[in-house]
Structure formats: structure tokens, C-alpha cells
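Fold it.
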Amino acid sequence: MTTKISKVNLHPASCKYLKLGHPWITEDTYTARFPKNDFFLIGVDEKNRQEIALLINDPLHKNVKARLWSLNPEDWKTTPDFKAELEIRIKNSIERRIKANLSSERDNYYLINAESDFLPGLLVLKLKNQILIQYYALFWKKVELDLLEVLQAQIKNLFPDFVLEDIWIQERNFNQSKSIRSMNGKTHADFVLKEFGINYQIRLNENYDFGIYTDMSAIRNQMRSYLEKSQSLLNLFSYTGAFSLYTLKLGAKNIVSVDLSSKYLNWLEENIALNPDLNPELHSSLCMPSEKAMEKLISEQIKFEAIICDPPSASSDGSTTSSALKSYEKLLPLMLKLLATNGSLFVFLNTHTISWNKFEEKLSLIIATTEFANKINIGKRFKLSEDCLPLKGFHEGDYLKGFLIDFKNKGI
């Protein structure tokens, strides 16, 4: 790949945040003057007349116009060898996963987690014998041949016993339309993978998502000590039921999964059937909005020792749509009514636009309006970790936030 390196002036705020570890240059009056065709750019602190960063240009992205490649001036004294550096970074990223021994417990994990592995806008997932590449930065399409060559070589070298069946490439976008293709020309892939001893049906290229959220895998493991003590679970916005199956596997006797989609609840039932050691009679599904499902359960005077709520960023009850944070205004008081006094409530938010503090503050304000004011703890945080560990100074990468909520006097 031939490169031409232009120098571009950066907004003073961009210079500041680059030096603090933030890897994005977002759209502003300065980025409007960036050249459109250069792959690399050298970012210049206009005030101090100092070159501060080697950037990768991404003019077609809606918001992020360039991403950090290096803060080391030695890396742009000469024309950068992108492919050689790509090989080093991919090798380091995969070796970190091998060292963590993630494959001993699950078939699904991230080989590359974008900015935190210094491969901006690039996610690579290992899904049993399939590799899924996800582009969040559009410049990766320009260097796709180099990426595929390096990635396949490193997988072959570092996983000598791994039989690679196919590589899929998905361009993630804002309207959630499907944009996925197979390197072998396949139209879809259906297979079963195992996570923490549980089988899940995976379907690539049937929906925007494929059947399990791998970024939640490490968090499921963090929650184990709480869930294995729980005899009952209410799983709201359950999707295909990973938390339902996990808690059932840990010994719970009453699992209720709630989702607005009958397709996902049928998929959940299919997942249970893939696990002969799980008793399907201990599980039931409610295909309705979460708010209505909880009102029904409250009327039946049912309590749960564990409740999980992970609403989509924009949740819908079939007629109106609201942000996940706002949806807690109605959801949280109902969940508290259903929570057993010895129980644990896990609430999640999946967006980088809301900080940890703002999320916690919102939860506190909601609780204060209920009959449970002064009786409730907002405690442990559940964060991205292991294969999805965020990069320090990059709050956009710390998008998945969870809190444990329980009674101050548990069991009383």
C-alpha cells in the first residue's frame, strides 16, 4: 500500500485529548480541511507547532474523521510500513487472549477489541470455527487484503490446531441493516458454540446480530457468585436467553424470560433444547413488553431472587420508543416490587453517551421516588473486561455499564 502523508492542524481540544489517551478525532471545523484521499495524516498542534500524532484518515465516517495510530514521532519520520505494524499489533492482540486462556471456558471471544488493542475501529471475534470481522472504521475496507492476509497467517501460527471454516466481514452501521459477507461465498452459517458449558445456536447473516452478545460473556462470569445463589430469575429484554440458560445451568428452579420478539424467544427455547441437562419445565417465556410483563407478575405476587435488565439503547413497547436511560423511570420501580428481599437486581446501560456517574445518579433519583427510598443499595459495578477490556482515557470504549442493586438489609 502506497501512502502519502499530509500534515493537518488539529483543534486544541483534540491535541489535548490525544495526549491523554483518547484515540479519536471527531468532526469539527479543522477536520473539514483534512485531505480526502490520504490514508495517513500527521496531526499538528497548531499552537505549539508540534507534530503530535500519526493518524489514519477516515473521511467517510459520519462522526469520527481520523483515528490514532501512533504517538511516537519515530513512526512517521519515514513512510510507515502499515502491513508490518499491523502484523505486530494483531500478533500481540491474539497472544493476550491465548495467555488469558479464554478458550478453556468459551468458544466465543474477541481476538481483537479495536482501540484497546491499538487497532482502531476493528473488532475480530472467534466464534467456534468461524471468524467474524467487524468494521467500525471505514478505512479498513481500503486495506482489507492486507488485513486478511496478516490475520489468517497469525491465526494459523498461533492456533496450530484450529480448523478455520470461514471468515465473515460485517460493516457495522447506524441503521442496523445487514451488511455481511463470507470469504468463501456462503450466504449464511448456522452452528452451535459453547459458553461456560452451555450450547447456543448461532446464525450468521440471518439478523444484524447473530445470537449471543460476546461482550457480555465476561460479565456473565462476574455475576456467577450472585446467580448461583438465586433460585429464581426474571430476565428482561432476554434476546436469545444467554442469562436465562446460564442461571438455569447454575441451579435456579424458576426462570422467566421476557422479550417483545417471538422470534428471539423461540430461539431461546431452541437453545434450551440444545442442552439436555437443562430442564425446560423450569423456564417460561412472556412475549410482551417488559413493563406489561412485570405488571402481570406483580399481580400474581411473584418475587424473584435475581432480576436482569439490559434494555436496548432505544427500547420500544410496540407503540412508543424511548432511550434506555429514560425507560428505567418506569422499569426500575416495577423491578423493585418484584425483587425478593434477599435478591439481586442487575441493571445495564449500553451506550457511551451516558457516563457511569450519570447512570448511577439517574438510578438514585428514581429509587428516591419509590416506596423503597432509603432501603436500597446501588453497589458493585459490572464492567467490560477480559477480551473486551476498555482503553484508559477512551470513554466511548467503556460503553457497557452495569450496577448491582439490592436491599440494605438483605433477607430481612
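Residues 82-100 form the longest helix (19 residues).
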